[in-house]
Design a protein that fits this description.
Layout (H helix, E strand, L loop, with lengths): L12 E5 L1 H11 L4 H4 L6 H4 L2 H4 L12 H18 L14 H14 L3 E5 L8 H15 L3 E5 L31 E12 L2 E12 L3 E5 L6 H9 L9 E4 L2 E2 L7 H6 L1 E5 H7 L3 H8 L6 E5 L7 H17 L4 E5 L12 E4 L4
Parallel strand pairs: 1-2, 2-3, 6-11, 6-12, 9-10, 10-11
Antiparallel strand pairs: 4-5, 4-7, 7-8
């Protein structure tokens, strides 16, 4: 993002929300595992402050910028309401979900003032409700002289998600087969992060051969659940969780051995480290993997690339029918129909 110089008109600015922008924002929040192990780091409020957005030297003196500050305050008030960044103000950047980070990035670009804001992969990382609101946001921004351009589609999704009350936890009887061994057992898990109750009395059983879709609004705890399974989150050791028959943190569990049986592809890892999902998948589909975790793996991909990715996953699962897989995805059209089990999360 370009720094505001003396005398520069904010209307000449232009910005883009892209993978590079997301990587830069996550980098300001710290390292990948810091989201689970540290309470420090830049907050959303600081990241969306006047000095941060315009990259003003903190030692600058003698420049009031009264007009710019007044315009900035007006935009921030409107954007806080439209993008609901107010509740995120005290959250660390490193602790944001993928969808929450995209809302913050959009707010930061729009706070720059008038001009052009290009949103690449507009629907990626956003739940269906937010994709619909993002489409409506374009009209609201015209009043501020902002040309908000959406790229990459997926604003409203080409296929509707099933209604929450109709979401089954098991396939029809005709599709059922003998249950496999339990790979993951979570019983009554409750997680509180600061003042936020992220999970409340959450239980879930994942068995061999099952193909799950994990769905929920942005910030509802989907990535946290994966971190509980892998052991990345320290909350895992204070909860009733068993993975591959061993209680998390219990006698006899060796985390390295447990992790060796789990393959992961994560959009957050892509944002932090730049490792593309295709290469992550190469690493994940290794011998000995019994559980495949796919956390919005197709973010940033076009339709053809997403189809190729899904085809590779299905080919591997066909060759390893005893392995289980869980796919987190806000765009239902990207999920193969073979993933027939559904687990839904809701704000608590």
């Amino acid at each position: 993002m370009k720094r505001l110089q003396d005398g520069e008109d904010a209307e000449d600015s232009a910005a883009s929300i892209s993978l590079e922008a997301e990587q830069a924002a996550f980098a300001r929040g710290g390292w990948l595992q810091e989201r689970y192990h540290c309470d420090e780091g830049e907050t959303v409020g600081g990241y969306l402050s006047f000095r941060s957005v315009y990259e003003i030297n903190p030692f600058e003196v003698g420049v009031s910028r009264a007009k710019e500050r007044a315009d900035f305050s007006a935009r921030r008030e409107v954007l806080s309401r439209l993008l609901e960044t107010g509740p995120l103000r005290n959250r660390r950047l490193s602790a944001l979900s993928n969808g929450e980070m995209r809302r913050v990035l959009l707010a930061r670009c729009l706070l720059r003032g008038s001009g052009v804001v290009a949103v690449e992969g507009a629907g990626d990382g956003l739940d269906p409700a937010w994709r619909r609101r993002l489409s409506a946001l374009r009209s609201a921004m015209r009043a501020f002289g902002v040309d908000l351009r959406m790229k990459g589609g997926g604003i409203a999704g080409s296929r509707s998600a099933p209604a929450a009350q109709d979401a089954p936890d098991a396939p029809p009887a005709a599709e059922r087969r003998a249950p496999g061994a339990v790979l993951v057992e979570m019983r009554g898990v409750s997680i509180r992060v600061g003042n936020r109750l992220l999970l409340k009395n959450f239980s879930w059983t994942i068995r061999e051969g099952e193909r799950w879709v994990l769905r929920g609004p942005n910030g509802s705890g989907k990535t946290m659940i994966f971190a509980l399974v892998t052991g990345d989150s320290p909350f895992a050791y204070a909860c009733d969780i068993a993975v591959f028959g061993r209680r998390r943190g219990g006698e006899g569990e060796v985390l390295r051995e447990t992790r060796g049986k789990i393959g992961e592809v994560s959009s957050v890892r892509h944002a932090y480290s730049g490792v593309p999902p295709e290469r992550q998948l190469d690493e994940a589909l290794r011998p000995g993997v019994r559980l495949l975790l796919l956390d919005e793996p197709c973010c940033g991909m076009d339709a053809a690339a997403a189809e190729r990715f899904a085809a590779r996953v299905l080919e591997w699962l066909d060759a390893h029918p005893e392995a289980a897989a869980v796919w987190v995805e806000h765009r239902p059209e990207r999920i193969p129909p073979e993933f027939s089990l559904l687990k839904c999360l809701y704000p608590v």
